[in-house]
Amino acid sequence: GLFPGAVGAAEIPPDWDPEGKTVTSIVLNYQNPDAPRSWDDGLFLNTIKTKRGDAYSWRRTTIDIKELSASGLFKHISTSATPAAGGGCVLTFTVVENAFVRDIRFEGNSRITDDKLRALLPAKLSDYYDSRFVDEALRKIRARYRSEGFLFATVIDPRDRPGMLDKLYQNGDVSLVFKIEEGAPTKYNTI
Description:
This protein is an alpha/beta fold. It contains 5 helices and 6 strands. The chain has helices spanning 41-47, 58-70, 114-120, 131-147, 164-169, and strands at residues 23-30, 74-83, 89-97, 101-107, 154-156, 174-181. A 3-stranded mixed sheet has the order 1-3-2, covered by helices on one side. A 3-stranded mixed sheet has the order 4-6-5. The longest helix is centred in the C-terminal third of the chain and has 17 residues, at 131-147. It is elongated. The N and C termini lie far apart (69 Å). Residues 1-10 have low confidence and may be disordered.
């Protein structure tokens, strides 16, 4: 963490409320401490609005979570405020980082090259995995096939691949494989 000094959770009085108490330290806790890091403590402290010495505010902490979420680096963020030794509170952010995209592949495509499909993608290798990236990639690939006359082409969501979600939840590298079933081109006549 960034600053030690939290009192154990078992010692928190049941009626204790952190609202308005001085934040004596801010702790960044990684859910998976063995996962590779691309986020440093300084960048973290510059991103959040709450600073050491501020009065704890649930609303400000909610804004901090939104700011951290907007970075796209984390798939889960939670906070807790615990009594600090000597008074005040310790604000702890527990984060689960998104996995890195290490490989993007296409299977089943013969009519549109890998390079042309890759050019449609909103992200590249070494970017953080974000499900919005996959949603947009699926939309763009499907649209490209339709524009080429393959109205019934299907693109299988790589998240549906066996083991894919397990890999994401382990904070490992992610290989995205877009399986494409092109089908025959649709022929139509103009009237």
